[in-house]
Specification:
137 residues; two-stranded antiparallel ribbon; 6 strands; ATP-citrate synthase ATP-grasp domain-containing protein; Citrate_synth_N
């Protein structure tokens, strides 16, 4: 519920949080309403800066039980000062395990997400679950 989410945020906002040895303060939270969906429409995406450039990780199984992402995810590394990956590169490198009917929507989203990541100078961005469902049209 919204009240539970608000209470969770109030407990953590503005306070130091330690995640895997890194401590920082959480100040911004994005809360979206739950959309009922089948579990096979859940994906995972993470973009993070590494020494070689930006690494984009994607797996066709997202959600709270994702487990060991490094062993499951398809990965693309965009070299420092490299060009943005094309949609074809993103699709072939990351989406081979995704049903073809969802690939166009996902590759468009991933291209825009990475462009925003670069433009806003992010160093880490993670979405789980990323849900992609057929439109109701």
């Amino acid at each position: 519920s919204w009240n539970q989410a608000k209470a969770w945020i109030q407990e953590r906002a503005g306070k130091p949080v330690n995640v895997e040895g890194a401590t920082g303060t959480l100040n911004t939270f994005i809360v979206k309403p739950f959309t009922p969906h089948p579990s096979d429409t859940e994906y995972y995406v993470c973009i993070n800066s590494v020494r070689e450039g930006d690494m984009i990780l994607f797996t066709h199984k997202g959600g709270v039980d994702i487990g060991d992402v490094d062993s499951k995810a398809s990965k693309i590394t965009v070299p420092v000062d490299g060009d943005l990956p094309s949609q074809a590169e993103l699709k072939s490198g990351l989406l081979s395990a995704v049903p073809s009917k969802s690939q166009d929507a996902l590759v468009d989203f991933l291209a825009r997400l990475y462009s925003t990541y670069v433009e806003l100078h992010y160093t880490y961005l993670e979405i789980s679950p990323l849900v992609c469902m057929e439109s109701a049209d």
